[in-house]
């Protein structure tokens, strides 16, 4: 039998992952601590972290995991100090080699290629950051910490400057909200991370939280917080989703399989970002109750 | 290409779901909303006819009736629909099936050959049998022989274990158990949800579902084909999850490890995940 050794090229223009990673220099850092290295971070390291141009595991203690030891303590009330110190470390040592700077938790799963694709259309010299935009507490809103957020090079510079000049301070232990306030103060714009069909890419919860449309009820907080009108059901989530949160090791390996392997042979996708979506075929609303 | 091709070029596949009155709203409704529509034809087999719609077979409900249900369901299909289809899938009401991947597997097979496909188990039957929960699919010839077996008495209701008993009838009627693994040896039919096999566990006394496998079982990412056909013990929430994961979620520009139309150039699944 004749075996064809040609690599199957994706026929859509623009879908070339190797070019993307050269174009979008993405530094990732994971907010973690000593007690989560074996139980959680090991599995991030085994799955998605390697797809970043550069990855740091930020902790209070330096180890040969490897982790960076920041000048902080452990604990939920230290998260914003960790964030500040992590970004300062990155700014001091790696600013020039990267264009975008992602922060994720040790229970966040990130599809790096989809993030790179989103960022490839953005200017890192513009003061902007992306994530799951929440509305409360900060006039212009802020990005959910658990879903991960990514700062442009200019945004990172302004974050650092804010702490140098005192325009930004550690005024709260709520890391995501506090950083969002600093972004607002420093005139960094909250970007719109939804795909061209309005589906969300960053998710502060696992997929089942949004994919299942529930009967009318008093809206839970995570729907009230959303800046953009939240959707439940299959329209919630982009085909090119960037992140999910509250993802523990077993689910990390599941998501690896689901994102990078499992698919339907010959299926024509509902969403092809490089061409206009011809028809909206998500009118079916799933209601399991 | 074997068999007749359906209107849209795909394999003519009739699917039937083994179910009952109490699962229609809680489970079958969600199968109907997700994967069932991809079959050329779908039947919901029950003890009671309803306008869900369900077919009412001459059986009772209960775990001990499952093989009677199976026999009656295949007899019904044989009597009414044999000529319009080439392949006949049975699934449970907690099985999720990726129909396109099943069609792709079957497109390379001959429905006039006595063969059936599924997750091959080794025990109890000399040539093995196919796991019921993972779903199994009979060729037209296999269905004919199953029916004939009951006509002549070569096959009987000798056990309530539907999958094992059907497997015994297949053996008796000289229907071959097909190999449903993909070209890289990864399984396509799964009697459990994905997490059961995808996570490699520490060395331990092997659980039954690994003992039963006819082909050497694999744990870790090599367990499961990119073009998986089925998962079992999938309840409504997970059905919608699997819809999203199979038909939508993907990585932009990613070069897949498995492209069945070309030879896989390198084996890049050496990483064995061990979460413990």
Automatic annotation (TrEMBL), chain A:
Domain of life: Eukaryota
Full protein name: Uncharacterized protein
Source organism per UniProt: Dallia pectoralis
TrEMBL record, chain B:
Protein name: Uncharacterized protein
């Amino acid at each position: 039998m004749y075996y064809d050794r040609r690599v199957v090229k994706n026929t859509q223009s623009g879908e070339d992952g190797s070019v993307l990673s050269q174009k979008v220099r993405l530094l990732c850092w994971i907010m973690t601590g000593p007690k989560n290295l074996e139980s959680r971070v090991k599995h991030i390291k085994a799955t998605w972290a390697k797809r970043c141009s550069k990855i740091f595991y930020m902790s209070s203690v330096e180890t040969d995991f490897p982790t960076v030891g920041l000048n902080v303590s452990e604990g939920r009330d230290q998260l914003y100090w960790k964030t500040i110190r992590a970004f300062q470390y990155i700014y001091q040592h790696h600013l020039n080699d990267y264009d975008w700077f992602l922060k994720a938790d040790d229970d966040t799963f990130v599809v790096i290629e989809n993030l790179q694709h989103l960022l490839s259309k953005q200017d890192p010299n513009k003061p902007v950051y992306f994530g799951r935009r929440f509305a409360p507490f900060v006039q212009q809103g802020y990005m959910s910490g658990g879903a991960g957020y990514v700062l442009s090079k200019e945004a990172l510079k302004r974050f650092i400057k804010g702490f140098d000049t005192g325009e930004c301070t550690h005024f709260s232990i709520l890391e995501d909200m506090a950083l969002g306030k600093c972004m607002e103060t420093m005139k960094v714009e909250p970007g719109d991370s939804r795909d061209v069909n309005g589906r969300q890419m960053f998710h502060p919860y696992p997929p089942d939280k949004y994919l299942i449309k529930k009967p009318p009820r008093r809206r839970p907080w995570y729907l009230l917080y959303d800046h953009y009108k939240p959707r439940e059901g299959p329209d919630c989530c982009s085909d090119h989703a960037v992140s999910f949160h509250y993802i523990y090791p077993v689910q990390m390996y599941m998501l690896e399989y689901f994102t990078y392997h499992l698919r339907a042979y010959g299926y024509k996708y509902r969403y092809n970002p490089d061409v206009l979506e011809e028809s909206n075929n998500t009118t079916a609303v799933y209601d399991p109750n």
